[in-house]
Structure formats: C-alpha cells, structure tokens
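Sharing a chain and its predicted structure for anyone who wants a worked example. Both blocks are below, sequence first, tokens second.
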Amino acid sequence: MTTRAGFVALIGEPNAGKSTLTNWMVGAKVSIVTHKVQTTRARIRGVALEDEAQIVFVDTPGLFQPRRRLDRAMVAAAWGGAADADITVLLIEAHRGITEGVERILEGLKDLPQGRRIALAINKIDRVEAKALLSLSEELNERYPFELTFMISAERGHGCADLKAWLASEMPDGPWLYPEDQIADLPLRMIAAEMTREKLTLRLHQELPYQLTVETESWDERKDGSARIDQVVYVARDGHKGIVLGHKGETIKAISKAAREEIEEFLGRRVHLFVQVKVREKWLEEAARYTEMGLDFRDGA
C-alpha cells in the first residue's frame, strides 16, 4: 500500500468558514468556531485520513487589514501557512462575493512562491442562487488561475467530501506524518485553552474578546483517571476583569462550566477545571504570550 501525506492550508477572510471546514474534514472539533471574526490565532493543524492519505490541515487566522501587533502576527502566520503548504485552498463566502478583503487576498496570492498549487472553495452556497454562484466562480477564475473550484457548505457538509477526496489524491507519496489516532498537533494544554477562549468569545461581546488570552498554567493527571487543569485568563484592563468575572463571579462560573464540559467530551474523561482572571496591561506586547498562541512576536513588529 502506497501511503501519501501532506499539508493543506485554508486561507480566507475572517468568518469565511475555515475553522468549520477543518473540523468537518477531521471529524472532530479541533479549531475554535464562533460567530465572531478573528477567533483563530495559531495555525491549528487538524489531521484527517482519507483512504491511504493523511491530510494535515493548517487552519490559518483570517486574512484582514492588520492594525495592532497581534493582528500583524496573525496575518503573517496565515501567509506563512499558505507558502509552506502542498496545496492552498482559498475560501470565499458565496453571499459576500469579492469584497475588499478578497481583493487583497487575490493580490497576495500572486506574491506566493512560484509553483504553489491553489484551489478555490466557494463556501455557504446555500445562501445564494445557482446563477449567482456560477457568475462568482467565473469572475474569480478570471482573476486568478485556480487549479480547481469546489462549491461547498462547510456547515452542512455539502461538497466537502469531493474536496477531501481530491486533496487526498493530490498529497505527495510518503509515510504518514502523525499516528493514525492523532487528530491535531496542538498540545492538549493549548486545545483546552482554546476551548475556554471560545466560551469567553461566545459569552462576551464588543472588543473585549480580542484583548484577552487564555493560558493553561498546569495540567495534573490524577490517579482516578481525571485531570486537574488550571487556566488563567489575561485581560488588558481592570474594567475587563470585572466584565469577565461578572456579578458575584457568575459569568466566569458559567464560562468555566461550559469549557469543562467541552474539554471532558473531547478527552473522554472527567476534568476539574479552575479558571482565574488576571490583569496584564501589556500582554499584547509580551513575546511569551505570542509563543503560547503559536504566533511569532517578531511578525507583529
């Protein structure tokens, strides 16, 4: 049996559906999915199997116009993922079409190293009529010579199997890069922190979610098979701490409960989760925080 393995980078604007597609391909939740944009920070790798092929999906942060150091580091990570991958898939939202952000991405594709293989996936096809889809596909392919175009709904799974089968067939010959039962190359500590951050993002609104980060400080395996996980939510201001804690600590309790339940489901065992909230005014300028998120601090300069 000839095995194949390679990397596929998913790029696109924030909220284009990259995380949802990664999770569908892997068959498990490895990437944070919320209604808020810019939720994926690190290049999360989800590992999917298809026949003799292993596909390592790099779910990159959304490509947008960066304003802060964190934004710049996220955008650099996204383009880095595209440059390193065997195949890059550009996700476009069908109902939004060619936005200013898509225009920038199309220009950016021209700066990738020669010979990069780029496919197009038009997502959320259930939101527009077939005629508009065809028109959008034609226009995008006139703007850039995509290798193939797929019409998909990552949320419903429509068209995703065809995309996965094609990607599997195009992976380079070689041994698998990860064990058969491994679905992500992120450490469990980071996956747990991402799950808690997702619950924070869903519960809180406005700008706050982008000015906080979650770190897993300790992870202790217990004799009864459970795990004690201690996490810290870092916020930039005292006022933010109050928002995260909520009245009499009700907000952080609800977030911790929801995060614990999801971590338990992911691990398949009992978890004791303890979450603290701390103020670090300049965490957005600390190299260690970027390393913890899987980003390069220097890319934000």
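Comments welcome. Residues 24 and 157 are 7 Å apart (CA to CA).
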